[in-house]
Amino acid sequence: MTMARHLATIDEFRARLTGGPDGGPDFHLAELATSEDFRDDDGTRRELAEEQYEAERDGLAALLTVRWGPPTELDLWPVLERSLAGESLPEPWSTLANHTAELRLWWDGGQWIALGISQWDKELPLQLLALVTAVRPPQS
Predict the structure, then answer these.
(1) Where are the beta strands (DSSP E) in the chain?
(2) Rounded to the nearest 10 degrees, how much is the dihedral formed by the CA atoms of 108, 74, 87, 111?
(3) Using CA atoms, how far apart are residues 11 and 67, in angstroms rounded to an integer?
(4) I want to staple 13 with a disulfide (CB 3.0 to 4.6 A). Which of 28, 61, 96, 136 is the partner?
């Protein structure tokens, strides 16, 4: 049921994306799932949550791969370094690079579809993210 709900969210975003300021938003970003925080954790709960979120991301990625073929892996570390060096990068990529290490990325007729796992800090919750955007990702 969860995978079906996640796919429905992605499909809804794809339908609503209009690609720019004149026609509407050029990206939609969703938290598909959010874990508990890890403030009082010795690392055990966080490790289990990471495994769960990676498995959920990979399962969803397998379904999206059936639709659009194998994803591209996008390493956001170089994007973060460029942003920290003062380069102005477009949204949503600038914000994502601050808390998401990598994305699985598909291209489908004018839209980029991405999945990633986000965590702002090791004590904060993990988030499974889905992105649909018309904004081309920055080159690493």
Answers:
(1) 27-34, 72-75, 100-108, 111-118, 127-133
(2) 10
(3) 12
(4) 28
CA distances from 93 to 42, 47, 58, 115 (A): 32, 26, 21, 13
Among candidates 101, 97, 112, which has minimal Cα distance to 28?
112
Rounded to 10°, the helix 2-16/44-68 angle is: 60
pLDDT above 90 as % of the chain? 58
In this predicted model, what pLDDT tens digit does every residue of 21-71 receive, in sequence order? 554 568 999 999 999 989 888 878 989 999 999 999 999 999 999 999 999
Sheet arrangement for strand 27-34: 27-34, 127-133, 111-118, 100-108, 72-75
Q: Which residues pair with 127 in a beta bridge?
A: 34, 118
SS3 label, residue 46: helix
Total residues found in the chain within this entry? 140
